[in-house]
Design goal:
- 2 copies of one chain form a homodimer.
- The first copy, chain A, is mainly α.
- The first copy, chain A, has 2 domains: 65 residues, Orthogonal Bundle (Arc Repressor Mutant, subunit A), CATH 1.10.10.60; 144 residues, Tetracycline Repressor, domain 2.
- Chain A contains 9 helices and no strands.
- At the A-B interface, helix 6, helix 7, helix 8 and helix 9 of A face helix 6, helix 7, helix 8 and helix 9 of B.
- The structure holds a DNA duplex.
DNA sequence: CCGACTTTTCGAACATGTTCCGAAAGTAGC
DNA sequence: GCTACTTTCGGAACATGTTCGAAAAGTCGG
């Protein structure tokens, strides 16, 4: 099990350390992956290419990362660390909204987010550089007067909404890269689906707007109101 | 491009039809896929196994389905057709909630839903047996007094929330099959993440409850209220 | 019966993520 | 120097989804 050892790279034998000396490190892998993505695009980031970039065997990578999802989560953690944390508003409600928006923005600017968002226990793999957003949401709900259970509910609802938005956004973006922008391929039968047929030709236009913040505020307000009214 | 021809299977030459006679059909493929899933579980549904079940070459399948995602969407459409449509409440708000809940339930009882939920333009691939839920939501918003744009917004928000819930649910279920049920693998540093540390040991318990309906109602109420207040 | 045309079938091949397992390359004790 | 022991490396192999191209098996017009 490779501990996050302090050695960055080819320090021959940092201490009384036994075993074959490693030719690479986790930090080097992350750097190479980033290089590869910046140069060729994130679709080109494969295990074998990454190994080639490092000049090592493909399977060697699996001694430093658990699997590809794990690698992407590590990169996301590193990325969020660079983003830094904004100063959050003092009002609990505004703080929740700000943290959730930061969460969305971080994932939205991460085009391959959809790849790992579906990973098992994704939230549990994040480190403190990303978890401050979760903390801020739960803390905000707490400060507003929610019980612990209600605070967790607030986060879960926001999380569902955010995951769905990022995922749909990523996939429609990927589709727009090929087809013209149209969500539905063919028109609807006005007999059976009258309302959908009526908005058919404007759907793409409507769906193009970013309604995440509006929906978020509505959700947060509703959750907080309901939670505290029940006390 | 194989049209949805009426031929179910090995009708030798239904009409003046040219070309090599097909040895299988889309309907047979769907039936075999279902058989395979019922017998061995949905993880075992692979292209090659499916072809073997049908006694045909693996690549032959690609003349009847576009790809595996397409196959799963076809199966979902077939499944929703069997589910039938509930009688919806007359009150617009209740109708929206009922349709969204039906949407969630259909996907939740579909353990491999997460596989295709991330497919490009997923909603655009559904047929009328599934789209009635979308229609009902848009119609409900319309009847409540929303503008077309607002109605689309209502659906989109619900859709994000639903997709996220189904996806997270599916993945935590998959994880629970291996590990004990714990979302976070290790405890939090009480210094940096105090609120998360405080609820750490109760998180799994809280997260186990089904809060989808509650969050949905809050969201729908908020969206409808805000939309009509702006007229 | 024969050649043109059309549609379907399917084996070979490719890239991918990942597991297995033996080899390599060090240190520690003697 | 020699023998453990430990850790890392990496090639072979596997299953997966999918593409390509050539062969097969029909119909149609003569």
């Amino acid at each position: 099990m490779p501990r996050p050892s302090a050695a960055s790279a080819a320090a021959p034998a940092p201490q009384g350390r036994t075993g074959r000396p490693p030719v690479t490190s986790r930090a080097e892998i992350l750097a190479a992956a980033r290089r590869l993505i910046d140069r060729d695009g994130w679709e080109k980031l494969t295990i074998r290419r990454l190994a080639a970039e490092l000049g090592i065997g493909a399977t060697t990578l699996y001694h430093h990362i658990r699997n590809k999802d794990d690698l992407l989560v590590l990169m996301l953690n590193q990325y969020t660390a660079e983003l830094g944390r904004p100063t959050l508003p003092s009002d609990p409600r505004d703080r929740i909204v700000a943290a959730a928006t930061a969460m969305r923005d971080a994932l939205a600017s991460w085009p391959w987010a959809a790849e790992i968002l579906t990973a098992d226990g994704f939230v549990g793999l994040l480190d403190e550089n990303a978890l401050w957003m979760v903390e801020a949401i739960v803390a905000g709900a707490d400060d507003y007067g929610c019980t612990p259970a209600q605070s967790v509910d607030v986060f879960r609802g926001i999380w569902y909404y955010t995951v769905g938005e990022v995922l749909v956004r990523a996939n429609t973006a990927r589709r727009r890269a090929q087809d013209p922008d149209r969500v539905f391929s063919e028109a609807f039968d006005p007999e059976k689906l009258p309302h959908l047929a009526a908005v058919f030709d404007r759907w793409a236009q409507f769906a193009q707007r970013d309604t995440y913040p509006e929906g978020l505020r509505i959700f947060v307000d509703g959750m907080l109101a309901k939670a505290t009214s029940r006390l």
